[in-house]
Amino acid sequence: MRMYITVILRCLLFAAMALSVYDYVKINQYFELFGRGYIDEFSLYVTTWRGTFLSIVTILLIIFNVIDFIVVKKKKNALLKEYILSEYDVSDERAVEITGKAVRYAFVFIIFYTIVLLASYMFIPNYFLDYPWYPIFTTASIPILGLIIYLITFKYFHAR
Amino acid sequence: MLKNRVKELRARFNLTQGDLAEKTGVTRQTIVSLEKGSYTPSLLLAINIAEVFGEPIEQIFYKEDDATK
Question: By the CB < 8 Å criterion, does B20 face chain A?
């Protein structure tokens, strides 16, 4: 359960960061276009919920990580030296081995997915102004999908 | 492929998977997959299990082809 919570919170953090950056880029892009004379006027709707969402997720993740670290530290059989992220299960030697296996699968996915994404950025000059969300959200999707692959792989091997 | 007699010995010693997990310092899930043969234990865990049952490691863990000899 703790792994589900950590992965969901971490994914939400990346998504919230992407949303906040997207807002910032979009607003600044309007000012840039206006300054260069491409548009005569523009209207903006500024909302604070994205920033609030980012703050809430960050606080929740920090609290959860602290609690998780305390819980892991209290477990007498836990391999504390293997504890780097709260996503890592260090409850015993088998959990550490499966964590390593899941990380390897996620790493392979990230390597190949990044190649595909980088290749897709070739099209940016054509529609970068119209679709500024694309590079932001695709970049955020790298760790999000990597984490999901990690979670699925871990649960698959753990259930065997 | 490493085979083992953990399930048989655990039954003989009247231990639950949880008891053996507690004595050897691992989770119950690890004992479950050890008995299923889907997990190869570390040398340390194998020694710990051997100590619990009071038998030499090679009497508990063996290669699959050894069993057919």
Answer: no
**Bridge partner list, B4:** B61
CB atoms within 10 A of CB A129: 12
Please give the residue of chain A at the shortest CA–CA distance from B39: A94
Mean pLDDT of A119-129: 75
Answer whether 0.95 is exceeded by the pTM. Answer: no
- What domains, with CATH codes, occur in chain B? 2-58 (1.10.260.40)
Beta strands at B2-4 and B61-63: parallel, antiparallel or unpaired: antiparallel
Please give the residue range of the domain that contains residue A75: 2-158
Q: Three-class SS of residue B63?
A: strand
Asked whether the beta carbons of A16 and A54 are under 8 A apart, the reply is: yes
| Contact by Cβ (8 Å): A21, A50 | no
Number of domains chain A contains: 1
Q: Return the structure tokens found at B48.
A: 């710990």
Q: Cβ A92–B27 below 8 Å, yes or no?
A: yes
A61 residue type, one letter: L
Beta strands (DSSP E) in A25-109 are none
ipTM score: 0.79
